[in-house]
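RECORD TYPE: inverse folding
INPUT: structure tokens
STRUCTURE:
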């Protein structure tokens, strides 16, 4: 796995209005900040493949499908613009927010 850091100003926004992502309720309902994201092979057309977490979820929480939901990627990106430069990264990418910053560490397969 390669590790790199992308400055939030390095890339232009890249997301489509119709794409969705799966987001933890810790973010959407409890207001926690995005702390971790990963991109997997999309499940269906319109799925961006992005899975977005606060980083405080345990496995039991993640195993319950009621603890996350599908949201427009555009909506999530507008709520936390720090993720926008990372959205073009490929399937297999894991991101972890650098504490206290709007930058993420990037881990790619």
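DESIGNED SEQUENCE:
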């Amino acid at each position: 796995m390669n590790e790199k850091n992308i400055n939030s100003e390095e890339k232009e926004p890249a997301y489509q209005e119709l794409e969705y992502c799966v987001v933890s309720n810790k973010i959407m309902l409890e207001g926690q900040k995005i702390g971790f994201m990963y991109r997997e092979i999309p499940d269906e057309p319109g799925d961006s493949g992005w899975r977005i977490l606060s980083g405080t979820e345990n496995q039991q929480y993640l195993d319950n499908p009621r603890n996350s939901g599908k949201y427009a990627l555009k909506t999530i990106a507008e709520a936390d613009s720090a993720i926008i430069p990372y959205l073009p990264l490929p399937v297999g990418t894991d991101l972890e927010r650098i504490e206290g910053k709007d930058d993420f560490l990037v881990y790619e397969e």
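NOTES: The CA atoms of residues 43 and 49 lie 7 Å apart.
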